[in-house]
Amino acid sequence: MLKSASKVTINTGNVLNLIDIKKKAGQNVTEELSESIKLTLSEWGTQNGHHLQNGTSHSDNSQDSDYMVVSTSATNNEAVVNITRPHDDVHNKMAEEERKNLKIGVKIFINEDSTTALTECMENVFTALHTERIENVILAYNPDIITRGENRDENNAKSTFTKASPMSLGSNVGRVSSTEIEADNEADARKCEAILPGIKILWAVLEDYVKEGRVQQLGVADVGGGCLRKLHAWARVKPTIAQINLASCCVVPPSLHAFCKANDVQLLTHADPPDLLSLAAVKTLSDAGIGCNNLDWCARYQVHIKCRGVLALKGYVCKATLQNKNK
Predict the structure, then answer these.
(1) Tens digits of residue pLDDT in 131-177
(2) Rounded-to-integer distance, Cα 87 and Cα 235, Å
(3) Distance between CA atoms of residues 188 and 192, nearest Å
């Protein structure tokens, strides 16, 4: 099946019920995603009798499994293989509680400003969770040009700010000059200039989901205060969540902290690497025998039980482009 496919969509299902994931509680995000993809491919291959090797699949039986669907895109005639874990319990977990008692949060990792890709990603998440609405969606947009220069920019940023905790910084915002609040460092300004046009393109797609009542809140990851301010001023649906990487959480830019405080934007930290789509996850696909050029996008979903704050389920839905062996 994979021999004729140019794209593959992988839904890991609820990774909280994977024994191998539980045994490795100290995994970082890249390791968790990679291991989840690896286990999903393993289960799928076993269930379907497919041995994955060098980008092709070799079937041990002539019957197709109920757990694999192959579809052909009507727009670009690309064969897409959709892979899911056959013993996933997402549907059962979602049914254990009334929907009103659940809170669904989704973070989307995407490196291209493709409205088609983002829409496809969102629809796959809705399908995976068997739901009609999502409480919040956070956009993590990292074009390749930014990823390549990330380490250099982070080093510049770390030399610009004095270390302070997010909590202590809050008490000092009032003593920060208006010039300091308005200004980002040079690295953040360059990054904003590069990514804001793409963020706006993708944001407009997410705004439509809010307008339709399918998403309640929107957030954005890894933008400086100046960039967040520009997005906030432009957007019809204002961002209510801003995420900053843990690597720089102790040096939160004053402009970002001040803007979030003044505009009721929740400032959160995360540990997701900017190159999540292009390193370990892709290597895992290749190691599993799927010739992979890149992950087009990936969405991480988390479902909490509101009254108890318990994480009920967590999973990933990703799409990858497969190598064309004829080229």
Answers:
(1) 999 999 999 999 864 445 444 444 444 333 323 333 334 434 444 44
(2) 41
(3) 6
Give dist(CA 206, CA 220) in Å, integer.
11
Element (H, E) at 146: helix 144-158
Residues constituting the chain = 327
CB 266, CB 241: distance < 8 Å: yes
* pTM score over 0.85: no
At which residue do the structure tokens 């000092």 appear? 172
SS3 95: helix
Strand pairing class (102-110; 134-141): parallel
Beta partners for residue 299, in sequence order = 108, 317
Element (H, E) at 7: strand 7-11
Vertex 85: Cα angle to 84 and 89 (nearest 5):
115
The three-point CA angle 75-72-11 to 5° equals 110
Residue in the block written with tokens 């969509």: 9
